Amino acid sequence: MMINLSNYALGHIVLALEMSHLANFFAVLILLSMGTLLFLVKNYALPKSFYALSALLSTSLFLIVYAADYLLFFIGWEVMSITTYFLLSFSVSQKTLHKYIIFAMSSALALFIAILMIYSTQQSFLYSDARESFELMGEFQGVFFLVLILFAIFVKLGVIGFHYWLVDAYEEAHDIFTAFLSAVLSKMGVYALIILVVKVTQPMLALAIIGVMTSIIATFKAIQEDSVKRVLAYSSIAQLGYIVTVLGVADGMSGALYHSLIHTAVKLLLFINIAGVIYMTGRDKFSQLGGLIYKMPQSFVLLLIGIIVLAGMPPLGGFSSKFLIYSALLDTKYLLLLSGVMFSSASAFLYIYKLIYGVYLGHPSHKKLESAKEVSLSFLLPQYLLAFILITLGTFPALIVPYINEILLESSLTTLSFTHAGELISAFAQFNGLIVMSAFGTIFVLVVIFFVSTRSKAKEAKNRFDIAYCGEEPDESTHLHYGYSMGKELARVGILRAIIKNSSSHFYEYLGKQTLSFAELFRKIYSGKLSVNFNIAILFLLLLLWGSLR
Amino acid sequence: MSSVLFVALPLLFGFSTPILGYFGKNAVAYVSTLMQLFLLYLGFDLLLNEGFSIELISIAPPLGISFVVTKVSLLFVLLFTSVMTLFSLYYLSYRSEKPYRDESKFFILINMLLAASIGLVLSSDIFNIYVFFEIAGISAYILSAYEKSSSALEAGIKYLITGAVASIFLIFAIVLIYIYIGSLNLGIIAQHFELLPFQIKLLISILLLIGFGFKVEIFPLNFWVSDVYQGSSTLVNALFSAIVVKAYLFVFFHLLYLFLPHGEFSLFLIYLGAFSMLAAEVAGLRQSHLKRLFAYSSLGQVALVFTAFALQNTQAIQAALFIVLAHSVAKMGIFFALALIEKEHESMESETLKSLNSPFLRVILLISMLSLLGIPLFAGFVGKLLVLKSLALEGMLPIIMMIILASLIEAVYYFKLAGYMFTSDKRRDVLKVTWAHKTILAFLSLLLLIIGMAPFLLSEYLFEASKLMLGGVS
């Protein structure tokens, strides 16, 4: 379905909206996030402008998704960036905010140049003409076009090297908005990548390599962070790295779409869970948390489900999407890339374990934590819903395959084969979620029964400090929680040290400094000294005369 | 109704001020405002009745005054009168607390400025253009030095010196034209200009470029602007950026299209404009004084208009007209709001925005800045999009990149201000804004939103206007 908007445009610009299956897929992701996050708002005293801006933000997101031409897409993209700025401004420090807007504006303006380039070849902004326009471009222009588009998208996705703004913004944003940033705004980058790059060009190996590098580096950066939200931010970058990787190879679309859905659901679950912890305890650092399992058992179980998905382990939904990603990489025989993704997936366990250990297990690091209570239903309900989705997708991994096939057909790509909802079939293997789930379920139940029946009746500790042994008596200044410096030891490994210690921030700070001193130079021209300025003016006149005599 | 009224009435007002002065302090102010409202009515009357005309008031050939009212000159006349009327209405509420000294003189000056700017746009005779060029200049010099402070005096003197230099170049060009063509009428000059020897054509063009270059604030000749903006009172700055520079821009390109219809120097002017924009925005990056900062942003916007006009095709001119409108409205909003802030905080350093306690003013400033930046949904975007689109059609990628880079730098310093306004907690007492001020400011911001969301309301008229401007009706 296509709606023509040319009557409301200017001077022969054709604008249109289109409702494709792909667009609907991403619209569902937006609605899912909005729907679940709406449960939370009543816990916080948010100003009215927050709701107004959120409404504007969602409008711009739908505009991005349903646009059928570059111009409307760009308008949506820019409005999204600006409203995000103001939504961040409720809680974020000035420095982070400024960092964000410089990146966001660079991204939007790079996109603007790119769409003008594509317009100049065929005088059309429509997606339907894009592929042809791209082929009509010269080789240099084509490469330049791709560089601009990829820059714009990478900034939004936070690909390593372009993530300078992202982690701070995620950490400082309002808890609800962080979830939205990770679940939805980053998906707009994925959507843009599909619409503007994958559908226009041939598969690009460079994209896949950048994706793998991103996921590996972000994974290790995540491990040594102390703030829960920062770990989740890096984890977001790493997960999006997989999506970028799989979009860089042929037939990777199915994996990318599946993983987008899973990532949206799991990040919503995790951020809501952590928002609940922060709401209850007012603490957001691993070193200040711990031992919450007895106080918040339901949250613990939900987080456990979340991290199993995040790790991409069977039997939950995370494995289904990873399965498609691995198959796509195997199919193209990029084995090094495949091993990179697997390496990063495996390394992710290190920070994933930290998430559950640092927050819920171990020993409470502060007496305040002993008085924490289970969060209210408004936090739990959306999490149960998301957990249900993730478990369902683990049990019936092919449930959404018919829908993904529609999208693939629409883009004239090879579809996945489909027998029944329980069986996900790729070119190499099949994965029957139903069998795996029942096997895991049986073992799980047996283990629980065994655990409960053999649990020793040891005496309960009276307070946090009731753990003295070897004559040592801990007090308030002793760090009782291992989460205090978990992951720090990894910095001793040579290569990891290089990843963790180096940062693109040096480059950007250097760039900023140089720009400012350059600006200082120009400001001196406008210093207000008439003698200098008239000399410049005379020079200009002489130049004009000299130029005209030649 | 005669188009001469647009020039005659404000001048007549100047002469009648001594008499009006007898009726008390308020009489001058109210009569001036009423007269401007009448001019506004006259303008809309001409627009609705399509009263486009050519009027000749012959003295003795070659001397004479001829006024041409076309769709495009009427657009500028309407813009100037509405800006001036809004200014007066705004000032009426402002003067009860902080009036200018010697108010009746002030009213003479602003009306002279209005008359001269309208005269510049309407006259189709190069000598009259010179006369109005001077009148506008002189009233602007005095206005910029109106407050008795050292920075105001500095501004006035700098403005005076550069203005004097500019008019020397202009008069020299006029003399050359008269020597070689023997007429001062623009239509006759346009017919014969092409036949002139190439060197003479070149010399006249260079002289005109330098003469007007000072006034249209183009790169190496715009050094005076930031000082003038800093020294002048904040309200008057709204007039400088919404009226004076726009009149000069129109005249310069009107002459250019008439004399050089084939766009001989178009490429050079486009590069000059784009470079000016970049230079102005880069210079603005380190600026912390609000009035200077917005002076640089004015330079940037004017340079963008310059680039668009220099492209010399109807679409680009249409874009330029869009930016002219959007910029005038946005800058009015900004300077009107800054005047209130300056009155309350007595400082124009950008840090004062941190303690600004008026959500209304913050939103007004924000909307105006977003429009200047060319963010979608605001008026500025339409103009910027159309300029870049016509540049893309000409395949001028380097220019597009220069403009986008300049916009990025602009964004950096605007959002720094936005950050000051929206993240700080150190607020002072609530800044009270009177309802009259609120109405005017809200109207301006609303206008930006309406043009931004429904540009098709204006685009047809502007397209016709740009065709006329390029066609060179004189």
Keywords for this structure?
heterodimer; A: 550 residues; mainly alpha; 3 domains; two-stranded antiparallel ribbon; 4 strands; 67% helix; B: 474 residues; two-stranded antiparallel sheet; 18 helices
Task: Explain how this protein is built.
The complex is a heterodimer of chains A (550) and B (474). Helix content of chain A is 67%, strand content 2%. With 550 residues, chain A is mainly alpha-helical. Chain A folds into 3 domains: 1-201, no CATH class; 223-447, no CATH class; 512-549, no CATH class. Chain A is globular, with a radius of gyration of 26 Å. The mean pLDDT of chain A is 85. The mean pLDDT of chain B is 86. The radius of gyration of chain B is 21 Å and the shape is globular. Chain B has a two-stranded antiparallel sheet with strand order 1-2. Chain B has a domain at 265-474. In chain B, helix 1 (5-21) runs antiparallel to helix 2, helix 3 (71-94) crosses helix 18 (456-471) and helix 9 crosses helix 12 (290-310). Chains A and B meet through helix 3, helix 4, helix 19 and helix 20 of A and helix 6, helix 8, helix 9, helix 11 and helix 15 of B.
Largest interface by Cβ-Cβ < 8 Å: A-B, 54 and 60 residues
The profile of the biggest β sheet of chain B is:
2 strands, antiparallel
Mean pLDDT of chain A: 85
The main pleated sheet of chain A reads as: 2 strands, antiparallel
What is the rounded Rg of chain B? 21 Å
Radius of gyration over C-alpha positions of chain A, nearest whole angstrom: 26 Å
Contiguous low-pLDDT stretches of chain A (5 residues minimum) are: none
- In whole angstroms, how far apart are the ends of chain A? 60 Å
